[in-house]
Amino acid sequence: MPSLRIRAALLSLAVLAVILGVWELSNPAPVADAAQDEYARLMGGADTQARLPAPSDILGRAWEELSDPFYDAGPNDKGIGIQIGYSLYRVGLGYIAAAAIALPLGFLIGMSPLAYKALDPFIQVLRPISPLAWMPLALFVIKDSQASAIFVIFICSIWPMLLNTAFGVANVRKDWVNVARTHELGALATAFRVILPAAAPTIVTGMRISIGIAWLVIVAAEMLVGGTGIGYYVWNEWNNLDLTSVVFSILIIGMVGMALDMILGALARAVAYAD
After folding, report:
1. pLDDT tens-digit profile of 35-89?
2. In Å, what is the CA distance from 226 to each residue of 69, 86, 148?
3. Neighbour tally for 59: CB within 10 Å
4. How many angstroms from the chain centroid is the CA of residue 264?
5. Sign (positive or negative) of CA dihedral 108, 112, 113, 115
């Protein structure tokens, strides 16, 4: 009997085929009205009617875009590869900056009850704020749209990493720390050789949640700041009334998000251990 993974893949393909088939058949191309005058036919006739693009149309657009993903024909006409690259660049910078602050600060909060009680009110006030609510203030203070988008990614990425790191460090088994003390390990050696490996699965879970949120937020942020990026691409194609490109870009956003999650998922499996 095929393995569970193979059967799941076959079932997924079957579900996808059914969805695409129903979508294609329920969305036929409009038939031109024979009674249209010559002007209407010259303007495209029935083809100008608003309708969702069929999967075959999206597949054709995907082939067109992916065959030359890095073309650059001006500020408002760049390939999908360039747009994704700009978005990943912003997400990467904001995410790394958040990790550089969240991980050591989470370590401190997890190890020190005093730091936890002192910083918890700030965290509880700042954490529920929508990342996009910071955008106007960032644009006013930073005065640069790209840096403001990176700042928004920083803000949305920092909380899951910070809280998961603090939780993971605080819940390391005390007997493991006591064993380190009996071996006369210093504070830094205990932190890096005992606490960090023990808390790593929880920390990476926070990093995985953060990258998902960051990828969600960058689309909305780029719609606001404009210029480049996959969010701007979606908004620009909507303004061009090109729904085929909009749907294609939505699928690309989903696939890139899945790839980012798979990378962090592989890291989570690498640091997992049996208790």
Report:
1. 555 555 555 555 556 678 888 889 999 999 899 889 888 877 889 999 999 999 9
2. 19, 12, 11
3. 15
4. 12
5. negative
